[in-house]
Amino acid sequence: MTAVAEPAPIPALHPEIAALAPLLGTWRGRGHGEYPTIEPFDYLEEVTFGHLGRPFLTYRQRTRAADGSRPMHAETGYLRCPRPDHVELVLAHPTGITEICEGPLEIADGELRMEFTATAIGRTSTAKLVTALGRTFRVYGDTIDYTLRMAAVGEPLTHHLAASLSRITTP
Fold first, then answer.
1. How far is the C-alpha of 77 from the C-alpha of 79, rounded, in Å?
2. Tens digit of pLDDT for each residue in 134-144?
3. Which residues contact 162 (CB under 8 A, 6 or more apart)?
4. Do 161 and 134 touch, CB atoms closer than 8 A?
5. DSSP 153
6. What is the average per-residue pLDDT within 25-47?
7. CA dist., res. 70 & res. 65, Å (int)
8. Of residues 81, 80, 138, the one with CA closest to residue 110
């Protein structure tokens, strides 16, 4: 006879990341991408923010072509809030890029806003040359809007992505 393990209880949210609680859950929506070196494109996206009871949120992002036909991109990482007004985002991309971003956290009138600037970008020997990244997240109610700016392959820091996601689940 095999014993059935009881599911572990969900841990309490660590107090250092309480300000980030509005992010928790799974979000889905549509986005649009453009860059001087590629044709514009639309995509579907799903982002999940979770926690393990430690002083960080987990982050998982996946995109597909707008018609759902093929996977496009993925990112995974962690979001930290070491001070009440400051956030840090650490990401790994399957394209051979790692990204460390930091910036201000603002919370006012029911809106959470994070403005990230990459402080370090790592790359494997076969990854494309990315020299700068910036991200803006705006969370209000059950909506996240974000933009991503990128300097890559000889282009200056330029708008690349924008999406609006709606919450589909909460933890």
1. 7
2. 999 999 999 99
3. 31, 32, 145, 146, 147, 148
4. no
5. T
6. 97
7. 6
8. 138
